[in-house]
């Protein structure tokens, strides 16, 4: 067991601020941009940095729960999380049953393909246990964080601003690595890439252009994160929120994403641009359509001027850009794309071979999200997740419409595009979305919905107040009637 430099910095911070759970959540969002680092190395496995603040947070909140502490939005949070809890229960049961039910009947891609070099016969493995452990931690953290964030003394929008700050950190690391690849500026690669369980691709080139992966294991992972930051910032700016560093983060994250030259990032951004008018119409924010047009025209003008300046100063960029464009459009002809497509095809075939039940969580590893989910948790689990997503989205839209602009609405407006961006990128090139920072975004959304319900309940008149007001109204009516009758008699 060894403690890398990242862990030497992270462990004392979490121990020092253990009694400040909200700060632990902010630290989690910040260290979530370092998935290729390790807080602790156990043999050939590295403990994810987000695991340290997450465990510190959960231990404190569970201790409070044992001592009898409850949170105001517990009932709403548990109601929204109930479909997800059912899916997790099914997933855990299926991971025990399916590998034994279909043992030696189907071929699967194991979690570590480099050890076997191909598919193997299905059977119970350590992958089922390890992935179940991660799933239990993620689900427990999601519920606890959502319940904790319903406290009235918490400014939940500060957590969203921390998320935006993490985007600025990734942009800065991208610039740093680009300077390292181009001009030889020293770069802290041993600090960022200390996890032995990850294959770090930090030397890739797109022709003469270096591919930037920042603190992530590969350019596609970096582009996925930047795309969710970009989509979130664009949407809240279009909604009229005056967050200066979010407005400037749009061009900064777009430029950093372009430095990754990732096809996944480019396709994700294209899908997000197509979703903008659809989201504006679906949410009833018709004024956003005009803002979208103005933003696109402004972006096109700035991009055109920037291209003219770059071409004039550095004309050698033109052939490099042509090479990047050609490599992106010819992605389907590459060997890596064909290998990933084959893995996804094999994973989809498992759905029919297991009668839609799946081979069990942790038994098969696909190259993208949907084949990975269908092949492991089956149709039952995927339908359950869709029910959870639909219920959460509907509740978020109702909460958004019933509350004026404020901290809770800002979180709802900003987190939903970030989650959608992460899911789009995962559907292209990620087998799972099992990182704790993603579950924290979902917890923030659930907590914001619950807080809006609490605010509405606090603003509504209480039953006793209604009874008193009705009683006073009835008494005043009788008094007015008596006065009218007296005047008639006197007349």
From TrEMBL:
The chain crosses the membrane at residues 6-23, 28-45, 51-68, 80-102, 133-150, 162-179, 229-250, 295-318, 369-390, 438-459. Keywords: Membrane, Transmembrane, Transmembrane helix. This is O-Antigen ligase. It comes from Komagataeibacter saccharivorans. The lineage of its organism: Bacteria, Pseudomonadati, Pseudomonadota, Alphaproteobacteria, Acetobacterales.
